[in-house]
Each structure stands twice: as C-alpha cells, then as structure tokens.
Amino acid sequence: MPSHTLDFPVFDADNHMYETVEAFTKFLxxxxxxxxxxxxxxxxxxxxxxxxxxxxxxxxxxxxxxxPGAQEQYFxxxxxxxxxxxxxxxxxxxxxxxxxxxxxxxxLMDELGVDRAIMWPTLASLLEERLRDxxxxxxxxxxALNQWMHEHWTFNFEGxxxxxxxxxxxxxxxxxxxxEWVVExxxxxxxxxxxxxxxxxxxxxxxxxxxxPFWQRVVETGVLVGMHASDNGYARYTNEWEGVRxxxxxxxxxxSAFATIIGGQHRGIFDTIASLIGHGLCTRxxxxxxxxxxxGSAWVRPLLEHMESAYRGHPHLFDEDPVExxxxxxxxxxxxxxxxxxxxxxxxxxxxxxxxxxxHPEGLADPIAFVDELKGLSDEDIRKVMGGNLASLVxxxxxx
Length: 400
Hints:
Strand content: 5-15%
Structural class: alpha/beta
CATH architecture of the domain at 11-16 and 105-233 and 265-395: Alpha-Beta Barrel
CATH class of the domain at 11-16 and 105-233 and 265-395: Alpha Beta
Mean pLDDT: 93
Radius of gyration: 20 Å
CATH topology of the domain at 11-16 and 105-233 and 265-395: TIM Barrel
CATH superfamily of the domain at 11-16 and 105-233 and 265-395: Metal-dependent hydrolases
Helix content: 25-40%
Number of strands: 11
Strand order of the largest sheet: 1-7-8
C-alpha cells in the first residue's frame, strides 16, 4: 500500500526504465552492427561504443542494481560519518521486472500510489557524447534506440507511462524526421540533451536560428521538451583543470573535491537555459514548453539574478525581459533534498514539477513521500506540483 493516501492524481516527472541489452543493438542497420557492443572484461559485462569500453555505468546490463532510494538520506543530510560510497549505496538488489518493462511497472506504480509517470531511459544518456564527432552514427543509433523503446515500452502505455524518445540535433533535417516519427507513434514528451549540439560545423547552441525549422515543428506538435540530466560533455573542462588529458564522465565514481564543487554548479543546464533565452529561441517560439528534469533547482535563482542584471545593464540586447521569458517557458523539477517550497515561492506553483527519480538510488524509495516536502503550501498548490502541472503539459498535446 502507498505510504500516503492522497485525494488527487499523482504524475511523476522523473521515473526511469533500465534498458535491456538489445536496446541499442536490435534495430541497428547491419553496417553499424559494431557501433554499440556488449563485451566481457574480467568476467563482467561492459558496453563499448565504437570499440571503446565505457565505465559510465558500471553494470550496463542492469541485472543487479542499487536499491531505489539507497542514497536518499545521503542527499538529505550529507555524510557526517564519512562513509564510503559502497557503504552509502548499501546492498544491491536484483532488478525488479517493473524496472524493465511496462506491464509490471504499472503494477509497481499502483503499489507506490503513482498514477502516471514520465519514463526516461538510463544508459542512453551516454550515447551522444561518445559519438559527438560522428553525426551520422549518432542519428542512426538514436533512431535504433527509439525503435526499441517504441516496441518494448510504446510512447504512451495505457495513458499512464510516457516513455521519452531521444531527439538528437546534429543534422537538423534528420532531427525533424525523427520528431515526426515519434510523434506519429504517440510521443508526448521528447528528450533533448542539454548541451551544445555537435555536428559537421562543430558544436553550437540549439537555440541559434539555424535550428528554427526544427523548433517550429516542435511547437506545431505541442510536445513537451524534456531536458534530462545526461553526459553533457562538461567533463572535458573539468579534466583540463585537473590536468587529465582524457577521461569520460563517471557519475558513479567519487571525484576530487574540485570536481565535486564544480558538479554542484549544474553548469550544463544553467548554460542551456541561458542560451535558450539569451539566443532568443524562447522569444521566437513563446509557445515552447521546456522542462529541465533531474537537474535540480539550485541553478535557478543564480540564473534569474544574472539575467536580471544583464537585462538591467543591457536592455538593448534583449527583445523582452529574460526573467519573464523564463517564467513563461520553463518548468522546473527540484530535487527532493532541496527546498521545493522556496522554489514555489520564487517561480509560482504553476512552474514546479514533482519527480522522484524512481528507481534510481539517488531518488526516493517512496515517491509520493515528496508531498511531505510541500508542507505549508495550499492544497491547490500541492495538487499542481504533485501532478496537475505535468498533466496540463502532457495532455495539452493529445490532439496534436
């Protein structure tokens, strides 16, 4: 039984699937068969992209995983006892069927008291950065992933689970084709990596006018643009400061004190949202609905302050007040250990989304316990945060 009895529907903005080993490979064209492989290293299965073994996620088969919410208390209260990462993570578990497939996931959601959920991939967040110098291959493997996702999960399972196909942007025409493909098959939320777009001309912002034909189609379809945390490539800059020539992002390996400080800045989403507004995309397309998910909210107030200062000193550079643009286009998912009530006071209840990160270890073992973090808000505002806002965003494009 759920830990709480709520008299309103709960819509979780941040649930995760664990991909099966065929997620990237089943639909790969034959000429790309070696692009993504699973290989054995010292008796353990690892994923290799273009022949390079990745340690991004230590166990990419997800047969054994950390227990949901294993790090919940660590993120809430810190680590005063100086425990090791292994001690914090606790004993791993066998992945439940509901982590891997939609039918048992609905049963699990019933047990947890969650009515609907957006379902993000987990391992897929490594793909784009490791293929950043091969735009063609990036589009091929992303489409293969989306084909698997549609076959295995669908993009709308019984009106309760909304898996998020990935849209990659290096070749804009192919991005439009992919958008059309997923929307035709029922997608209501898409996943776009919050990072500069690599391509034949080198990295650049997705907010530049050259991408406007893509964004025009996004607006026409009405899909919600999810920008889930992923490998955004910023590890390259951290490595420069640390004197490391090469190295991939390793989110499950303890880094240095410097890397820990920098990581807490959430520069990837800060810079992405600054670009979407500062490069005028949200002004050219005011109907865009953008939801940064699993990026927390610590970056929000500093960004608003920087935008306010920039606009006050250089109003001629802006077509409209950037803070007003943020409040019109952006919806924020705060971490459970942050201050959701403070965020509501800053942005308004209409702009805040509940998400549990279930079943990841850094999330909540009991998703709807998030409601306890909303004490002091009105019943109406709690309803909005716990699902009403997200329902309006997702359901508004049902007829598109």
